[in-house]
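Chapter review. Work through the record for 1,4-dihydroxy-2-naphthoate prenyltransferase before attempting the end-of-chapter questions.
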Amino acid sequence: MNKSKFHRLWNGFWQLADPKIWIASTIPMIVAGAYAYGRTGKFNFFWFGLSLIGIYLIEIGKNALNEIVDYESGVDRFIKPENRTPFSGGKKTIVQGKLTIKEVKIIALFTMLAACGIGLAIVLFCEPSVLWIGISGVLISAFYSIPPFKLSYNGLGEIAVGVTYGPLITSGMYLVLTHQIDIYVLLVSLPIGFLVTNILWINQFPDYEADAQGHKYNWLVRIGKKKGVKVYIALYIASYISFILLSIVDKNPLWLLGFITLPLVIQSIHIAEKYYNDIPRLIKANAKTIQVYQITGLIMAIISLLM
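Structure tokens for 1,4-dihydroxy-2-naphthoate prenyltransferase:
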């Protein structure tokens, strides 16, 4: 392999992997780890780190599968230049010629198999009960894009993301570290699930026309941008209700610190309401939604450690 091809493959791989978006899965794992330590006073760095690597490999595999399907359906190719943002249009590796479809397929296969290998090691040597959570995570990640389900094309993508990054990853990591699952960790996962779903939701606005043209019938395409802003607001409200519920059930008022993000949330809502059809200006709402998720994750981890 010559240097130019290696350079292209190397850059294309990391563009596809897109480590900056791993924050979506890092937060539930960190919160789960902190909550496990807060509850038990114990923490296993080895199994935590191995689980982290496994989830990141699934992230890359999921990105690769989504890249292939969105390119072949035309979704990535239909996005107008003025609507291309850092938050839209997939990873753009095939569109930009950084990787071929065959290369992306190989990456998808390798990373998914490697993730399954790590998952099997965790099942065999740490926690057998996590098997079903792991299988569910791999299947949802794969069928998010590919047939026969194509969840993101059939109005189930938003639910899949919320369930995976909320209850599935959070409870899975907690189970690996504590060998048990209880109602409290499921409640802890709810704000995470709602907020990560909101990131996906607001990131679908720049792709709205391209998704519709490529027959990617997510819920934003189904209801339209104007109504979509109302869903955006509702998901924020649901996350705050989760904090109230968590503080009551867990008898810990510190969970109400989740409301610290309220000023940032109000700003992002105002932007979305005003500029949902003006993608360059809407970008600020995309960025603020991610900031809310990051700040919330940090607050939840700190609260968990203080238990």
